[in-house]
Specification:
Elements: H1 7-15, E1 31-34, H2 45-54, E2 59-61, H3 67-72, E3 79-84, H4 89-94, H5 96-106, E4 115-123, H6 134-150, E5 158-163, E6 168-170, E7 178-179, H7 181-197, E8 201-204, H8 207-213, H9 220-223, E9 231-233, E10 238-240, H10 243-257, E11 265-270, H11 285-300, E12 315-318, H12 369-390
Parallel strand pairs: 1-2, 1-12, 2-3, 3-4, 4-5, 5-8, 8-11, 11-12
Antiparallel strand pairs: 6-7, 9-10
Helix pairs in contact: 5-6, 6-7
EC number: 3.2.1.39
Transmembrane segments: 374-390
Enzyme class: hydrolase
Length: 391
């Protein structure tokens, strides 16, 4: 059977192949947020959608694949990275069929309505306390990736895992950073696989944690993006005026030391606590507002770091809400841009759910709505062509 297309369709088909538009990036623009839910008093996923759309935040990460969240995000245009929890790693590493079923149940079944653009396989595994998981991470990553490939989702879904600074032997100055010897034997094969499939190195970077660990020797202005003399890296011959840039370049240095010169670093968590214990110096609402407001301005500039000026910094903020059920020090429960009732924790330019809870700060829209509209148009037209083909 032969199919004849009108000339306009042939023109579009040549310049905008329908399947090409199915490839999406896991990060649109430069600003994202983590949607942690270890709490019993936070708003519903539907209300979270309202908050995010009001704030024009398009990129979202969750730490599992909760179906109520994925259903709420359907049709919203929000782009979400789902998580395979650390507790599932050993099972997914040992059983390819279960990895396939997990991807079918938690990713494929929600597409295309919910824009799932990535799968984070575990969180802060390497360098973490549970050594039994270190050897399972790569196997889980490969099985999850192979599942997406088998389901023809590998061009749409980015596979990653986030690392903390616990994987590094030293990070000051940035040029001296390298992976710990105990971590390297697990990290290098993981990075080799990520290099093959085009995944970034995901870093949880917290100037807050660095500062509270040594407040006597670290200038808080340097941690908060405020005017300061900064630091000088003699090997890189570069000056750093804020700690986050230095932390990102430390990760680049570690990657280079391991032989990975082209891999991108994406910040998958960063933030500042608004409340802390007595020994958590600097954990207060004033500093949290300063860090998050200045971070938002810095990301909006769409520029790179001193060592990688062409690699635009992208970061997911931690987190949407204060999470009252998290264990650990008080700071762990107070990283939210919003309080449990949906009101803003402090004013950095966002609106809360409550009437009258608004902000008056002006900040240029971080996302690129033109790009989003263009993507939607291409996707819609391509879908129309596919419909003609199948009819």
């Amino acid at each position: 059977m032969s199919i004849h297309f009108p000339r306009p369709f042939l023109f579009f088909f040549l310049f905008f192949p329908p399947f090409a538009s199915l490839t999406v990036q896991a990060f649109t623009g430069t600003y994202g947020i983590n949607y942690g839910r270890i709490a019993n008093n936070i708003p519903s996923p539907d209300e979270v959608v309202t908050l995010l759309r009001e704030a024009k935040i398009k990129n979202v990460r969750i730490y599992d694949a909760d179906h109520s969240v994925l259903k709420a995000f359907s049709g919203t245009g929000l782009e979400i990275v789902v998580g395979l929890t650390n507790g599932q790693l050993q099972d997914m590493s040992a059983n390819a069929d279960r990895a396939l079923n997990w991807v079918k149940d938690n990713v494929q079944s929600f597409l295309p309505g919910t824009h799932i653009v990535g799968i984070a396989v575990g969180n802060e595994v390497l360098g973490g306390d549970d050594l039994s998981l270190w050897g399972s991470l790569l196997g889980a990553v490969k099985n999850i990736y192979n599942a997406t490939k088998k389901l023809h989702l590998d061009e749409m879904i980015e596979i990653s895992t986030a690392s903390s600074f616990a994987v590094f032997a030293d990070s000051y100055p940035p040029s001296s950073c390298k992976f710990k010897d105990t971590v390297s034997q697990y990290m290098k094969p993981l990075l080799e696989f990520f290099s093959q499939i085009g995944s970034p190195f995901c870093l949880n970077a917290y100037p807050f944690l660095a500062y509270i660990s040594d407040p006597e020797h670290i200038d808080i202005n340097y941690a908060l993006f405020k005017p300061t003399k900064g630091i000088y890296d003699p090997k890189f011959r570069l000056h750093y005026d804020n700690m986050l840039d230095a932390q990102i370049d430390a990760a680049y240095a570690a990657l280079e030391n391991a032989g990975f010169y082209k891999m991108e670093v994406i910040v998958t968590e960063t933030g500042w606590a608004s409340v802390g214990d007595q020994n958590e110096v600097g954990a207060n609402a004033t500093n949290a507002r300063t860090y998050n407001y200045n971070l938002r301005k810095r990301l909006a500039k769409k520029k790179g770091t001193p060592h990688r000026p062409k690699n635009v910094v992208k970061a997911y903020i931690f987190a949407i809400f204060n999470e009252n059920s998290k264990p650990g020090p008080t700071s762990e429960r107070n990283f939210g841009l919003y309080k449990a009732n949906g009101s803003i924790s402090y004013d950095i330019g966002f609106h809360g759910l409550n009437a009258g809870d608004s902000s008056h700060l002006s900040l240029k829209n971080i996302n690129n709505p033109g790009l989003c509209r263009s993507y939607a148009m291409v996707f819609s037209l391509s879908a129309l062509i596919l419909l003609i083909l199948w009819s």
